[in-house]
What we know:
Largest sheet: 7 strands, parallel
Low-confidence stretches: 1-59, 232-238, 1061-1071
Mean pLDDT: 85
Radius of gyration: 44 Å
Strand order of the largest sheet: 13-14-12-11-15-16-17
Oligomer: single chain
Structural class: alpha/beta
Amino acid sequence: MQHQDQEESACSQDQNIPPLEHHSFSQSEETSQQSGNTENDTRNKKCKDKRETVDTQEKTSHSCFFHPFDQQSVPHCYIQNYVLTPETGPGNLIDPVHEYKSATRAKDFNEMKKKINKELFRFAAGCMNTRTNGTIHFGIADSKCTGYMHGEIIGVFIEKKDEIIDLVNNGIKKHFENNADVAKLCIRQPRFVDVISANSTSTNKCVIEVDVVPSHSIVQGKLFHIKTLDEKKEQKKSHEGQFFIRDGASTTAISTKDLAAMTSNLPSIDARRCEAERKPEMKRKSNHGIKLKNQLTCGGKNLGYYDYYIIVTNKAHPEQLQHLQFMTMMKTFCVLDFDPDSAVSGCCSNYRKVRIANLHKPSQFNGDAEHLMKSLNLYKQTSWIFCNGREDLDVEFEKPLTPKEWLIKRAGEVQEMISFFCNPETLQRGKFLVIFLLLSPVEAMIDPIIHTFMSFYTNLGGAQNIMSICTSENIFQKWKDFIQAKSDNDISGQSIYELELSEINGTVLSLEQNSHMINRLLPSVDGSSVILKKMDEDLMPALDILCQNQCENVFDEDSKEFEDFKITTEAEFYRGEKVKWWNFYFSEIFQAKPFIKRDKYGKLKGMIRAQIKSHSSTCVLLNLFHHPGCGGTTLAMHVLWSLRNEFRCAVLKDNTVCKEEVAHEVTHLLRCGKSEQSFKTPVLLLVESSEEEVESTHELQRNLRKNIGEIDAFAIILNCIRSNNPKDRFKNTSTESEFITTEFTLKEQDAFKTKLEELQEIHQKPENFYSFMIMKHNFSQDYVKNVASNILKDIVIESRQSQLLAILALLNSYVSESAISIPLCEDFLGIKNALWGRESVLEKMEPYKCLLIEFTVEEYGVYKAMRFVHQSMALGCVKILEEEHKCTRSDIVLNMLHYDLFFKRCIGQDLLVRDMKSMLITRQRRTEGDEKDTLFSPLIEDIITGHDGLAKIQNIFTAASSRLDKDFVIPQALARHFYLNEKNFDQAKYWANAARVIKENSYTVDTVGQVSRSELRHKLDSKRLENKPVTPEELQQYLELAESARKAFKRAQLLAKTDDAPEFQEEPYRKGSYNISGYMGEIDIAMTVFDIIKKLPFFDSCGFMKNHYIHSFLRGKIPISHVPTTDNETNHKFLSILKEYEPNLAFMKAQVKDAFDFLEMYFTYMKEKGADKERELKNRKRIFEHYHVYVSLFCSTPEEVQKEKKQNPKLSLNLEIEECRMFLEGKKADSFPGLLQYLEDKAETVQKIAEKYSFIYQKAVTKTTKDKTNHLLSHIILKLLKPKSPLAKKEKELFDLLNEILQDVGTQHQHPEPYYLALLLHWPGRKVTSTAIATYVENIRKCSRMQFSHMYRARATIPHFFLGKYDGLNKLVPKAALDKHFKNVRERNVLWQKGEIFTFQEITNELLRVSGTIEQGDLYTKYGALKIPVRPVYIGGLRGGCSTERVSFYIGFAIDGPLAYDIKYEES
């Protein structure tokens, strides 16, 4: 029995220490102790008056490793209530003996010090005399400590560690006296080992340990006695001294007799110690440094093999954090952290000092994969996942759990999260590595990190992509045993455990390719530079930032490695890969050949530089239009490279990223290394986009204007736009632009010839760099055809390689930037997923490898994909396959749709399916840079023109609809094919309704209407060829089809208010547009029905009154039964049919008038954002043509009116009023927006209009609010355009008319027009001081939101009046009057869009600049005590920061209230 005083033997359980939890585990880790539920009658001798009954439950212990012996700096911790192995006696003298002291009876710190003072030196003397290494532990339950297991970790609270250290050092002198110097060499300094709870949180306790190392050279020939102290009088020696030895597991004092025997045996004891120390240390069995490098790089030289690393780690000791720098250098997808304190004092806190990490929890990874990738910013920023809660969050459900609780409450979430990570759709299998970084021991098989390992093991199908890094061999041995017990798998081959953490850190850092680069630099003011910190770069994941010292100091540029890298990178570029910054760098190093400069290089560079001097906005947009594959992006990047010392240059990596987020990142780049007050170096951002994405770039510009909001800071967006017709787009754009095409100048052709000669000096067979050679041959189709024909001459269409080549060729021909991911290619070709040495896709594609290129995709993650070297070569191969090998486009499409693997969930599959849909669906539109408008996609158009094209199209769309059964655009396209190409209307209806079932929106419902409309037109066209009158049966069919179409179009009108434009759609509208096809369709079908009714033989017997009866019937004035007609069977049938449809026909005129009014309002009140002028003009032309027919049908001529007056003199007044209304309707002046059109200097017509409205106002018995508002507006316009007209009213009369209207409508009217008139007349001036103006502004805003909010996403309101310098009504300046100054300017709208119109004196002479303030981000103008809210037209018109500022601006009046133009800050 070990030495222990009676007080210690009576120690009872510390109330602050919970008893060991009871779990059931596998036998490999169990140490059971059974005692049943019995009473413990053992009593302490000093506490005989106390009787304690202890219920000792069955306990199952979890063992813990000892702290490494005689290693003070090694990080280690103990887990509370876990158990150390029992106390031991001397063995081989080198393995330390252990003695435990619970120290739980100490009432305070001083008493604890006494306890340590008494026990430590007895133990030390015993070890030194016995010549054995040993460790004494304070805070571990000994054999006499009730309520705890022997060896159970309890821990003690230590207030002042320095006092314990002083106690030991002073105690050596007091106890050992003459041998104190020798004892000091043997007794190590106290070690304080932290004790953590089972859930990895701190207990604020520690175990005090002291190691004793009696080295032979120090203790040889010596025995040690100590002076024991009297407990009551500490400084008084109790007797001369005692000798202690280790006797079994105890330290005991020896008698004089035993001492004599020991003295005589001392040489033998010393010799044994000497022999034990001579035994050589075990050498490392393997070179773990090389092994670590191979594991991390897959046998390579740097960390570039794996796309991502997933790190799983546990609690770190503070001393370890300095050696975790390597974590910040790796491309870490996520970290699974089991340390609840990590965010404050662990790995996470350490990482976030230099890098950005988003803090997540496992439950956040449950949901739609694409949504998770975007919302959690995966791939772009490291995700730090707390797998066992966070101690720093004061939230109950975030509290850390014990292992038992964790298995019940959190294990499922972690398992689902790991399944998400291991899904091939998230991370490419074999291209990410899971690293278990064990910074502290895993002491039990129930530890959550074991469960996590097994989840990865199961999801990855083994441990081949999992490695373990352990900071000691002891930690690894237990870890290995646990994993082997769980999986029957020895992980030694994938584990590192013989390196110290500092060695691991240095080894990993040496693998980082850019480790030699000290700092990346950004340009700053006056030629200075600032450092781009890694954390700042992490905050801009959407940007590829071009630094001043880009590519410098990465390689030893005299090395073979650099030369090989240079040759490979150049070859990849000239073969067809996208240009890299390296390509420009290579052209500038010593003795390098220059990079080809396109002729537009200087112009583009000059256009960008010019913006510095003359920018009128905080964000300027410039365009570069280019044919796909002609070098547009390369030119743009070349210019950025040359301007990197003048601008902070960046490229937008992914154009699908939210533009608000991109704007935040660009703003951050603008301000990097700068104070708020300092001048900002401008940002030059390159955005690559297609014609369809132009509006997205405008959205980015608007967000940047809003974010930057500073006079001394601005950004330039260089929008590099792929276009099939760049020259025309350049001519028609309103934005400052340049363009390049596939037609090279002679100078450019000479440059390519020279470059070929240079390439021949360095590269083997540069003639096989087909992307370069296509450009060198000036995009010659003959060259492409010859190359494709030669390479494909022996192709075997049935082979998988040939099929994949054909599919890629077709995709790349019709969809720019399309590709197929390497994992999909591997699956298709049957390449097995071996870790090292597997056959590559390009090798498998021989002999077609020269046509293909592998590149990196950064969209929804980072992965490798494959495409053709050039789009021209892809199209050439498609033609050769069809002409020479009878493999048609339709065959390739059907083959692609046949294979399931192209549609299974896999990384890159979403983009592939998107590209397939685009190839099948997306039509060409001249308004988007294409050469012509097409009814179907170019692929479908090409197939239609081929042999048996219509049948093939049907097969393709049917197969695609079956494959993509949840996508409405395919059945929608099939419906269009049937009604446009085959006139098979039954099938068209079936597929149109199928699309509507999948998703009902304005586009699918409109297609349903278009089918019926087309069938009706087809029947009418066929009937017209017969040249026979319509029969009743045919009329029945016509009206039935018309009603079906009308209902669909009305439904489409309703849905247009709520739906968003889909990604792919059949009607020519893009996202951000408002779908008006329902209104256009309703007008079309109504005009067709009116024409049918007019030509019915039923009305022929009405004679010269025919038109009168038709008009009256269609206007609902008379029922069809009152129309006189010949009495015969045919007319009876006509009458029966017309009666059936009479409810609809009688209201059709009113409904079509409502549609005309809506469209008038749509085009007059608002303009389209990023307006497509050609499409808008086309729509307005159609409307005008229909309205002309409508007027001729329903608006009687003056002669007809006069004739009717004579026939009905009693109805003369009513007829006159009706005549006025028909006149107004015929002039499109019967609506408020229609009247606004007359501001464009049509004074004579306005006078007639005002006269008609005055007559209605004076004579009509009932007058609507619409009549009154139109009456007032007509007289305001007349007063402005022709103030001396005899019909012009005085201003007081106008105010009286307005007051009458405002009394009628109050403040809750649903339409904004009355309040618009109130703004015009009541706006403050010298003669007008209405205090109600702010109320009118509030009312007009509220009404406009209610009526037009669904259109705001696509259109912006137009001001028809501006505030001028004069008083009274003359303060209103029509916009049309301002436009007259620029009637000969081709791009007048550009001046308005950019705000540059207000720099012209002709404008400023007429308009009044008003003063105002910005308060809390809102803009106001003030007139004395009046404060009126005004909306800035441009988002970037106000600075950020909600600063209260004085400003001035011009005011325009739109249907949604007053607008502020040309806002200028009045700087103090």
